[in-house]
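It would be a great kindness if you could assist me with a short task in structural biology. The full record is reproduced below for your convenience:
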Amino acid sequence: DFVYQGTLLAALEMIKGGTTCFADMYYFESDAARAVEKAGLRGVLGETFIDFPVPDHKDLPEALAYMKKFVAKWKGHPRIVPAVAPHAPYTCSKETLLAARDLAHREGLPLLIHVSETCKEVEEARRKWGKSPVLYLASIGFFDPAPERGRPGRGGRHGRQRVRRVRRGARTMARAVPRSTAPRAGAPVSPGARTR
């Protein structure tokens, strides 16, 4: 009930500010969806996957079971889009990240994830994996497209082209994001972001 009530309050604030659609990553997203439906907003609602016990699941099998019910109830709703939301590379194992990706592929759902949010996160990733969080995700196949029905996943030349595109995007983002962990007013925060 806490998530439902909190989402209703947030919806009122969003409506007052002119927001009509938002993305969310939290727990009990089916309760959040009820609030979004009641408020008349549109939302992409990502159920969080994480490698430690949280209020609505204690492990990966329970997260997958919750998602199955969440998707069955809300997929196809005209204003609510269920999403798969592995929290971040530093809180999810490779197994969890790929299980989330595979679920998104099977169900045709979006993926939401926190990545490269702070300089500290990027530095720790480089120490742990020898690469940035974005390149780590690319190296494990997290960004790979869903395989075509009846065909195995695409690797080889096409896989290398995808990794090159991700690397180019990561370099662009690194140039666009300020060095501070708190963006300055008017600073671009993503590739393609424009300032006035």
Notes: The first helix runs from residue 2 to 17.
